[in-house]
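Whiteboard transcription, Tuesday session. T.W. wrote the structure tokens on the left side:
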């Protein structure tokens, strides 16, 4: 019988804040309205905390023309 795995305990690759990451689809990031590409392997970067993910999404968002 399969068992649920515990969330991974991570430190944000950018700011060092601790957070949980659930690889089974229940992760907090799945509820976020934006998606960013996974970092390249050469970037040596893992998941980001909620605050840094939101900052990265805002920085990656296209600026409105005007």
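and on the right, the sequence the group agreed on:
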């Amino acid at each position: 019988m399969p068992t649920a795995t515990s969330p991974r305990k991570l430190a944000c690759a950018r700011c060092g804040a601790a957070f949980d990451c659930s690889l089974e689809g229940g992760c907090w990031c799945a509820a976020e309205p934006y998606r960013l590409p996974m970092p390249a392997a050469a970037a040596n970067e893992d998941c980001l905390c909620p605050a840094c993910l939101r900052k990265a999404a805002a920085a990656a968002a296209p600026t409105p023309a005007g």
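Someone added at the bottom: The chain has one helix and two strands.
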